[in-house]
Amino acid sequence: xxxxxxxxxxGSPKYAECALGLGxxxxxxxxxxxxxxxxxxxxxxxxxxxxxxxxxxxxxxxTMLSKLSGLDRLDADQILFVDCDCLAFxxxxxxxxxxxxxxxxxxxxxxxxxxxxxxVQDHLSKHNLKSLPQFNGGLIYYERTPxxxxxxxxxxxxxxxxxxxxxxxxxxxxxxxxxxxxxLAKKGLTCEGYAHVIPDQMDFTNTATGLIGKLxxxxxxxxxxxxxxxxxxxxxxxxxxxxxxxxNYRIYWKQLGLLEKLEQYESKHQFGYMSRWQRLERSxxxxxxxxxxxxxx
Length: 297
What we know:
Layout: E1 3-9, H1 13-28, E2 35-39, E3 52-54, H2 70-73, E4 78-82, E5 86-88, H3 93-99, E6 104-111, H4 120-127, E7 132-143, H5 146-160, H6 176-188, E8 195-199, E9 205-206, E10 211-218, E11 223-229, E12 233-236, E13 240-242, H7 250-268, H8 276-292
Parallel strand pairs: 1-2, 1-4, 2-3, 6-8, 9-13
Antiparallel strand pairs: 4-7, 5-13, 6-7, 10-11, 11-12
Helix pairs in contact: 1-7, 5-6
């Protein structure tokens, strides 16, 4: 099955910079999944990190629901949508393999109370449900099967009814998360192949919501790990780090800067390039080995 990673970067140039960081991080770890970006900013250097650039076609208020448009706009059979403000630390193959055949997949947990776009118990009562899947829309998987296409249409149909749903959201755009959650809760899990909620502990993605202590984030060491309080307190080492609120932290933008410098380095140096200092260090080590360890090298 043909695969594709899809992301969206529209509006502010900072989102284009974020999307480039995502593409560069995938390239750095050697992920070979074709990468596609939907953007209204064509003048950024997309070609080095993305295989295809598409223009937005949906109204601005439905931008978040356009996460679900991959099958309509691409010839791929498996789509993994990832928010632009993410960084990848593991290759994506295990995510595609886990989700294959499961329909629309999101990562989270089923909830029956608390606050999520308003009071959860009020949502359940209004829509005659027992629970809702709480998840982060920064990672959504879907595939080209009749059941999954049907499920995607249900998600879009719920979006059309947004003003009447009773969820609280103070921005002009229709949020994808409650629309998808409501569609999944009403139909998606009644039959295999329509939809699936990935257990949060699998950490295909994580936002470090509820961070405890220090966020360890270093793309040069392929390191992203921390302790946080999500549905429980636990140690996290995600495949994909979703910056989310950390888009306002210097540590995230430092990683984007490092990724850009690596790309510049690649463009200026040939395969196997060794700096003058590396050559000098090699020469010194060779002499030390010959003199003190009698190594014939």
